[in-house]
Amino acid sequence: MMRQLLISLFCMLALSIGAQSVTKTSHKRAVKTDVVTTGTLTIRKPDYICISTDGGKDQLIMDGSKFTMTMGGRQHVTDSQKNPQFATFHTVLKAVINRQDIPQGGDITVVTKGNAITVTIVPMGKKKRQLFTSFVLTVNAKSKALRTLRMNGRGEDYTEYVFK
What whole-number distance in Å separates Cα of residue 149 and Cα of residue 119? Predict the structure, then answer.
């Protein structure tokens, strides 16, 4: 609990020192209207990312191999070293953060079209207890900056972040 408080505090501090703005869209097939909130994206090399929306109530934090996601008051914690679904996601995000070439093969499909690189990650293996069915990232081909992140859930549900 204390660690989560410190991470949240760090994210809030990052807001005041030049974080990038983000718009989050949560789409649930069963709900007629999408939920749209705004917040910030903070990136620290080599592999720290914090996406905080709705006044810090919803957060997606990658701190090394540890992922902490707080959505709708529920917190999910996993580690990419133990969770194969997040292992490839961690590798791709780390490459984006460090402006390196994005790895290809296995779970990853990379398509470059114009000034955009679209990376689709469809985790292989067990499908039962996965939080997401796929991840789709769009990266600026020249600057290597993250443009969008879409996390697809079961059915037609998804959460999408657009970075400005």
Answer: 10
